[in-house]
């Protein structure tokens, strides 16, 4: 069931992304509403697909790279749709939709790894840890997209090139509001994820901190986003400087999510997830 829902979700995302791109070109409100409705439909189906995979596998479906990319795609789409309810940055669907499609396609071609059905992966702490971290990553990815849009708009204004692209971009003020809202929510969720992960590590491994490569990179990422939040709220680093900072911080987040999980040995790496088999929460 989860596999069927996965492909139906992908179809909804593809169609919604194409229509959203059509809105970007033609600027017709009907296209925007249709594309948004399809992306909401895809997100609902995506949620059902993950829930079905959770029931079928018996554990949260985020123990392999394939599953993690799928969950990250869900988190990014959810962040875009929820934040858009308040700020209505209409261009986001045309940007985030194709990214989610690519993430799901990448997940689809990766090998299927059987879920690790151990008590260690059924703890409420690990569930809170994974969901909050991934939701936070989705919101911080949205901060990155907002930063890129801000820099694009700012460059057009500075160069006085008021072409068709400029007219389709949101105002700098709205983009800055998008960056701050997604940064605040994303940082809060990432903090919850790190705290719950530390509590779980103490229960399962007997230590809150073990200097695992992914733990170290997660701390570096958290410190960078804490610094970004501080510079925005305390030092007034809004606008271009904040946008560049968000782009740099997201690059480190990608290293944490993919680099530490794929290239660095440790109990957080995707290849060693089965190592939790002997652990008990």
Describe what you observe in this structure.
The chain is mostly helical. It has a domain at 116-278. It has helices at residues 2-26, 29-57, 65-87, 92-109, 124-159, 164-168, 172-205, 213-233, 240-262.
Taking the alpha carbons of the first and last residues, their distance comes to: 30 Å
Number of helices: 9
Mean pLDDT: 83
Helical amount: over 70%
Helix and strand arrangement:
Layout: H1 2-26, H2 29-57, H3 65-87, H4 92-109, H5 124-159, H6 164-168, H7 172-205, H8 213-233, H9 240-262
Helix pairs in contact: 1-2, 1-4, 2-3, 3-4, 3-5, 5-7, 5-9, 7-8, 8-9
List keywords for this structure.
flat; mainly alpha; disordered C terminus; 281 residues
Brief characterization of the structure:
The chain has 281 residues and is mainly α. 76% of the residues lie in helices and 0% in strands.
